């Protein structure tokens, strides 16, 4: 448990070094420094911002009181006192910090050794008295086990804590490491002993979904299990916990809601521009699995909660499910190398033959960007897998992620876009050629040839190469005998979101200007696109504000050109992104993705394109022995069997490790497509 505090300090220090938070004291307290990934920086930024928001709000609202106090429980090497003192917010406030005795002794030694820190504290006295390891006029460090309430009470009394003045308790990822009976007792003790008080809590939530499973496993491996999650699995349970233990007011929101509601738009944009970044799925999943809660009692009638009322639709309400879809592991594909990946693309190149390209995954026991192609072939009712032979490997293939592959014929597919890193996204287009005939019983028999574009087609690079990152697309016929590839949206190294589109003539690979009328959809990436009735269906995606979109648009074919037309759904489609999509007999199928409804994860959504009826189905994973993460995956729909094959998926789960779905999963849709 103490180790998590040191790791947290290093992560906060790294975030400060990159400009996410303004804190010149972290580097003095964190000890060793190590640069963290942008995803970690964002996570610790929103954590620090939430705590600072509530602490400063408390100090502002109690500034008319002659004295106030802040009690930080499990403070570790946090720099809160020094930041507040540096900006002049502690004129009449004393800060008390409590942690294990050895942690507080180390911190006291650091402060005395660092002139920049000791100068802010000023004169010290009374150290060595009981549990007090450091004592300044407005700053006290106490080495006490929080689970021993009688000892905690005595130590705080010796240090001068006054039960009668307004007090803010802070517990930043602390209580969850304690036995529930002890942490509950601490919450109730604080309410009973302090007639005018506030309590700020920040910790984890939602242990039951795939991300939650990975999160729990990580902390268990560190030998510091998250004990509160079983009894208090969601924000509502935490709210009831405080209201049932003496606190009269309680507000709570997850970090997606906090980022949206409490951080000004210009500050959001500043943070989003600090580093190249595109791990949006893991960022939003991390934020949905942490919450900030403030509880209060005995404050003035004019007192308002430290957290505002949520001004966006609350995302904890249960999603109504119309039924379930069974999931099963594909027989004989367990342990096949190259199928554990994300950010790849899978495409049906022939009946019962699936080609998978690119992405990040596991190969030879290592995590890396994958250069090899893999093929799945169904023979005699069973899927077989093999590594594809690539002819004339082209340097332009590189190590692509988040590209698109469109099969244009029995022997030809076109690769568009993709990236090697968030700042290297200009990978252009490439032909994939494969034989018209093959040996169905031997997937490795299929060879794929990578072919450069002809010089005349190179002109299109200026249009496409540097603008597509995650654009999904469809091919469609505009006039008899002519095929076009419709390329829409995405992002680039320079533009975080794109809203333009192109009609690529598939024979000449030239951009054709075709008239498009109607309301233009909001710019987006990580959306889905399918061909339907000579046009294209665009669904969901992530918008410019990094918020999921719930709109569905049809690019409807007209006699001369096309028209954008919004598809109304009832009930409204829950906003999502990083899903896949297919059309079958007038129904749009959306598979997985990420949404902000923390009570569940997206399964299968079926939209009737004639009536607009929109139904959500949960995926039944009881027969899977591992968490099924349905983002950054690929899926292939087999219409004859009404079966969906999900290949890969997962991602870098914050600091909890990388999760890769270990094997392809078959979803049987026959019941919902028949009954829908």
TrEMBL record:
Coiled coil: none annotated. GO terms for biological process: tRNA methylation; wybutosine biosynthetic process. One of its GO terms (molecular function) is tRNA methyltransferase activity. Its EC number is 2.1.1.290, 2.3.1.231. Keywords: Methyltransferase, S-adenosyl-L-methionine, Transferase, tRNA processing. It is an enzyme of class 2 (transferase). Pathway: tRNA modification; wybutosine-tRNA(Phe) biosynthesis. It catalyses: 7-[(3S)-(3-amino-3-methoxycarbonyl)propyl]wyosine(37) in tRNA(Phe) + S-adenosyl-L-methionine + CO2 = wybutosine(37) in tRNA(Phe) + S-adenosyl-L-homocysteine + 2 H(+); 7-[(3S)-3-amino-3-carboxypropyl]wyosine(37) in tRNA(Phe) + S-adenosyl-L-methionine = 7-[(3S)-(3-amino-3-methoxycarbonyl)propyl]wyosine(37) in tRNA(Phe) + S-adenosyl-L-homocysteine. It holds the Pfam family LCM. InterPro entries: Gal_Oxase/kelch_b-propeller, Kelch-typ_b-propeller, Ppm1/Ppm2/Tcmp, SAM-dependent_MTases_sf. It comes from the Eukaryota. PANTHER family: TRNA WYBUTOSINE-SYNTHESIZING PROTEIN 4. Belongs to the methyltransferase superfamily. LCMT family. This is tRNA wybutosine-synthesizing protein 4. It comes from Manacus vitellinus.
